[in-house]
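All the exercises in this workshop are built on plain-text protein records. A learned vocabulary of local backbone shapes supplies the integers on the structure line. Once this layout is familiar, the rest of the handout is easier to follow. An example says more than a description, so a record of this kind follows:
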Amino acid sequence: MNLPDIQPPQVDWASGAFADGPLLSKSTRLRDLAGIFADEPARQQLPGEQVIYDVEMLATSPAEGELYTGVTHLYPGRVGGEYFMTRGHFHARREQGEVYFGLRGNGLLLLQNEQGEARLEKVFTGSVHIIPGFTAHRLINTGGEVLSALAVWPGVAGHDYAALANGFALRVMVSSEGWEVHHD
């Protein structure tokens, strides 16, 4: 019996670009991130249409047992003294974890549990990040090029942005050494 040769989706590890799969894309612009950066007046002075990050996902069912796969492309830049970052979120189903794989660029993954305890992990080409359940997460681009990370997470996980209405406990700011951590 001859089995059909089925070509699965592919990702270019150097760029994070998907090929051969049904894709969903979303751009998050500066106007979408009101209240996220420490210096809101500085954010308001920048063009609201500026894309801060793009997310491309393989179109997958959100059913129990299914996995989403996506790549976040976080562009370099800053608002005031703070680096560009993703909105960050908990999962709506808190027990669901996630895995990030650094593809290109340099940055940080900010992790915070429900008790407000936060930590940072360096993101770089080849880095692997296991994000446990009950943990909020945010990417921060501290470099001069696009920071791209591949993520895999349960289709049922969902996103809960409202739980972080008061923000994360840490902020990453520009410093003469590159970056420094401020406690909020």
